[in-house]
Every structure is written in structure tokens, then in C-alpha cells.
Write a structure and sequence with these properties.
Length: 196
């Protein structure tokens, strides 16, 4: 594997943030009308009786937080690749190389576009009931395409980033930066080099 080009140079938080400053093709952000994520933990909002409150999130923030989280298993894959190369197991090394390229492509889609991050949310599923209670939510969903009267959306992106292990200040700053940049469209994402 080449030191500067291998697939195990996975998208870092810095790389994701720098790339957000590219000139993207405009794509609708899934949480445009959601209530802001920043609120004191002890203050649950007051809703009208019978109101359904849905927590929604920007998948880009979840991807960025996961990359820097203890749930990130990329280091283990990198070590496995190194051991396969050291053992002369070319087939296994090649399979892991291919996996790394595909994982980097997935991270590009997740970090810069609108793409599912269910696996990362699953890593913190045991902590979601407490978040729902603290934010007075009925459910947490990725996005809503339409909603009826009596349904509120609450942006919980920062909360989820923090649950993944990101510092709250860093999460708030990252999320604010993301809100100023539209997600990239599929064609632009497809053209990103997974080796960078």
C-alpha cells in the first residue's frame, strides 16, 4: 500500500470540514425547518398538548462525529490490512484494500451528501431513550418530507454528535458550518476520489 494514497487514509473530520467549503450543487437540507439543536439539557421545551415532536438530524454531522468516535473501527481494519500484508496474504490484503476504498466512498457520501448513517446511530441506540426524554421527543428520524399540523421537528444533530463522543462546542461549531453549506449532489459525490 502506498503511504500517501492508500484507502486507509480515511476521511478525517478536518477533511470533511474543508470539503464542505467546495461550491456544491444545491440540494435541499433535510432539517431546514427544525428547531435549533442548542438548548440547556435541563430545559425541555413546552409543546401544545397532543403535539408530536420528532427529533431529526443532518446525517453529515453524524458521519463527521463517527469518524472521530470510539465506535470508529477503521483503525482495526487498517491493522488487519497491515497484518495481511506482513503475512504475505495478498488476497486478504487486496480484499481489505477494496473495502477501504468503498468505505472511503461511503464516508464521502455520508459526510458531504444526504446518505444513511443508520449503522452509526445503532452504535448509540441505548442512549437514545434518555435523549428523547430530555428533549421531550416522540421519535428520532432522519428526515421528514412533509408533516401535518401538530407535528414539530427538533434538530438533534448536535445531541447525537455528542453521544458519539464529540465535544459539544466542536459539535455545535461543525453543525453550524454544515448548515451554511448545502449537501453535495450525487454526481459531485460520485466524482470524489475515494483515495483522498
Amino acid at each position: 500500500m502506498h503511504a500517501s494514497h492508500g484507502p486507509f487514509i480515511f476521511g478525517s473530520v478536518v477533511g470533511l470540514l474543508v470539503a464542505m467549503h467546495m461550491s456544491p450543487v444545491s440540494v435541499r437540507t433535510p432539517i431546514e425547518n427544525a428547531e435549533p439543536a442548542v438548548m440547556p439539557a435541563e430545559a425541555a421545551p413546552q409543546s401544545e398538548p397532543g403535539t408530536v415532536r420528532l427529533g431529526v438530524y443532518d446525517s453529515r454531522g453524524i458521519a463527521v462525529a463517527w469518524v472521530g468516535s470510539p465506535h470508529n473501527d477503521l483503525g482495526a481494519k487498517k491493522d488487519e490490512h497491515r497484518r495481511a500484508e506482513e503475512a504475505g496474504d495478498a488476497a486478504k490484503a487486496a480484499a481489505l484494500e477494496r473495502w477501504g476504498i468503498m468505505k472511503q466512498r461511503e464516508l464521502h457520501f455520508q459526510g458531504f451528501g444526504i446518505y444513511p448513517v443508520d449503522r452509526y446511530i445503532a452504535d448509540i441506540k441505548d442512549q437514545l431513550p434518555a435523549l428523547m426524554s430530555r428533549r421531550d421527543l416522540d421519535a428520532i428520524v432522519w428526515m421528514t418530507h412533509a408533516r401535518a399540523d401538530g407535528v414539530e421537528t427538533v434538530d438533534v444533530t448536535v445531541d447525537l454528535m455528542v453521544l458519539l463522543g464529540m465535544d459539544r462546542n466542536a459539535a455545535e461549531h461543525t453543525h453550524q458550518q454544515m448548515r451554511t453549506h448545502d449537501p453535495l449532489d450525487f454526481a459531485t459525490l460520485f466524482e470524489l476520489d475515494p483515495r483522498e
